[in-house]
Specification:
single chain, about 625 residues, alpha+beta, 4-stranded antiparallel β-sheet, 3-stranded antiparallel β-sheet, 22 helices, GrpII_Intron_Splice-Mob/Def, DNA/RNA_pol_sf, Group II intron reverse transcriptase/maturase, transferase
Length: about 625
């Protein structure tokens, strides 16, 4: 029986609806039933989902990359609010995908390039709307040890799971798997059948997804008969759905084998007593490893996997990259790490050590060195400082990714002198350079304050600006993924926020927009000219400005309800793409709003009057 769903009217209702879809899907799977959801398109088309999708996209750098029609997210933000909502609704009602613009990016350490497909910005917004609604349904059914392109999961969790199996389960024969050109060979018909079986029973939605998959590629094909374009927002989720059949195939051998016992611990004990083959899967997108207890079993499982991919999913394993490895003799390479079992103390007599994969590190180090040499190509001091900031971001990005490997310091120390000398030589051509202790620098103080290593630095505007180094890293232990962490339940969100030491986000006050929309509609009927700043971005950011000000008037401090609230610009002397940012909006009460707009002289010298005069002055600039 299909689930009855109601269209959400606020962010809170949307969150509760997604939670309900997740829990329903989870409950059905537990009793060996498949969920069934209809009327999904009505939810995807609703105003709250569209606003949420655009808000999420605008913070993504890729949203500023144009598609075939040359439009970016800025073009959407500067349109009228009602115009954007109607455009997306109409496009979903009779969907026709625009052609995809192909871009090729270099692969690390390889001559061949990776093809990326960039849809039009309108298609990307629609894909994000679809992703938001269908993700909780699919997420509830994904394999618990699949870590790629999923919320609240990372490559560090995949690394920890591999280390746990090698050390505590004490099996070390590994099939390192790689699917040849996976994203280019996904079979559309099989993918749609899988989505139907996983509970997406809205045929209109499946036809939209089919249209997206078949979108033509500029200068290559009018219709794309196979594959999902890398770079499309929906592709990672669809890829995980497609490979769910592979997860089910492998886990039925051992991890999810049906037994008349309660709990994983008792089931594993029963499986051992009956001498079943031990088989464990860890997957990160299309990169995966399968553990088993003997070489003979590994060869048999590899053959069966190869047959499964070819017969059931129309995919081929890469012969070069798919191999059988004994972790006690050779390291395996997984998600950018080298992982190997070494003799040591412990129950099994072995410990697991990991380190960054040198083959993947070297091209990134070369890229950093190239960026360091480019510092002097920029004409102004400000541009050079921005380049230093970008270099530091690249170095810190490497550190943050690889800090979970146990031998990260040993590998990174090999490159620290190279980066330090290159930084010193590049900076000294610009101005006087000196070596200073990291803790004495003015930038990256939260990190540099803990180190005394020497860094190449310059003094500019009275501040010591240093180029950080890659050896400022400490191994960070990460626990195994808590499977109860999920963005689709209150308890799951709370566990994640506690682990990450973050605060929960406030819900958008969408009632502000509903009242504003009625006022704008009235102005249109009366023929009054619209304010040129009342674009989509203004409407979208009003609730966030209200939340930032905690629902209080910024001038008099009084707590406001929606009817008393005015959201106004601090200054209108900014370009149209800057004037509606949250930082340029403020919450005020009606009385203070009138006082700012009035030219009447204020009596007295109170704090409120000083603030009113301040904002009057800002408005006049």
């Amino acid at each position: 029986m299909a689930q009855q769903l109601t269209v959400p009217r606020s962010e809170g209702e949307l969150r509760r609806l997604l939670d309900k879809m997740y829990s329903t899907s989870k409950e059905k799977i537990k009793v060996n039933e498949r969920p069934s959801f209809k009327s999904l398109l009505e939810i995807i088309k609703c105003e709250e989902v569209i606003v949420s999708a655009i808000h999420k996209m605008k913070s993504n750098k890729g949203s500023k990359t144009p598609g075939e029609n040359g439009k970016t997210i800025n073009d959407i933000l500067q349109m009228e609010y009602s115009e954007v909502i109607k455009m997306i609704e109409d496009k979903l009602s009779c969907y026709k995908a625009g052609k995809i613009r192909r871009v090729f990016i270099s692969k690390l350490g390889k001559k061949e390039k990776r093809p990326l497909g960039i849809p039009n910005i309108e298609d990307r917004i629609i894909q994000e709307c679809i992703r938001m609604v269908i993700e909780p349904i699919l997420e509830a059914q994904f394999f618990e040890h699949s870590y790629g392109f999923r919320p609240m999961r990372s490559s560090a969790h995949a690394l920890e799971r591999v280390s746990h199996i090698a050390k505590w389960v004490n099996i070390h024969w590994v099939i390192e798997g790689d699917i040849s050109k996976f994203f280019d060979k996904v079979n559309h018909r099989k993918l749609l059948k899988i989505l139907w079986s996983m509970g997406l029973r809205d045929r209109r939605l499946l036809m939209i997804i089919k249209e997206m998959l078949k979108a033509g590629i500029i200068n290559e094909a009018e219709i794309n008969d196979m594959g999902t374009p890398q770079g499309a927002i929906l592709s990672p989720l669809l890829a995980n759905a497609y490979l769910t059949k592979f997860d089910e195939f492998i886990t039925e051998f051992y991890e999810k084998k049906k037994m008349k016992v309660v709990g994983n611990k008792h089931r594993y004990d029963a499986l051992k007593r009956k001498n079943f083959k031990q088989i464990f899967l860890v997957r990160y997108a299309d990169d995966w490893v399968v553990f088993t207890n003997t070489k003979v079993n590994a060869e048999k499982v590899k053959y069966r996997i190869q047959s499964f991919f070819k017969d059931r999913l129309c995919l081929d394993l890469s012969i070069e990259k798919t191999k059988i490895t004994n972790m006690r003799k050779q390291p395996i390479r997984f998600v950018g790490f080298e992982i190997k079992c070494w003799r040591g103390k412990g129950k099994t007599g072995y410990v697991v050590r990991s380190k960054p994969d040198i083959k993947r590190i070297r091209p990134k180090i070369r890229k950093i060195l190239d960026e360091i040499r480019k510092i002097n190509t920029y004409p102004s001091n400000d541009e050079k400082l921005i380049q230093i900031h970008n270099i530091n971001s690249m170095i810190r990005g490497l550190i943050e990714y690889y800090k979970y490997s146990t031998r990260v310091n040993i590998v990174f120390n090999k490159f620290s002198k190279m980066i330090g000398c290159s930084a010193f030589n590049s900076l000294k051509r610009w101005r006087k350079t000196q070596w200073i202790r990291a803790c004495e620098s003015s930038n990256l103080q939260l990190i540099h304050s803990e180190y005394t290593e020497k860094l190449a630095s310059i003094i500019i505007r009275g501040e010591i600006i240093a180029i950080t180094n890659i050896n400022m890293v400490r191994w960070t232990k990460i626990s195994q993924k808590n499977q109860e962490e999920t963005p689709y339940s209150y308890e799951g969100r709370l566990k994640y926020l506690n682990r990450m030491k973050r605060k929960p986000l406030k819900e958008r006050a969408m009632e502000l927009n509903k009242r504003l929309n009625s006022n704008i509609t009235l102005k249109c009927i009366n023929g009054t000219q619209k304010d040129r700043f009342n674009n989509f971005e203004y409407h979208m950011n009003r609730p966030y400005a209200f939340n930032r000000d905690k629902g209080n008037c910024r001038i008099c401090g009084v707590s406001l309800n929606i009817a008393e609230t005015k959201i106004r610009h601090i200054t209108k002397r900014l370009p149209v793409n800057e004037v509606n940012k949250v930082k340029n909006l403020m919450t005020v009460c009606k009385k203070c709003y009138k006082a700012i707009n009035s030219k009447k002289q204020l009596e007295g010298d109170s704090k409120i009057n000083k603030k009113i005069l301040k904002y009057r002055e800002l408005m006049s600039k």
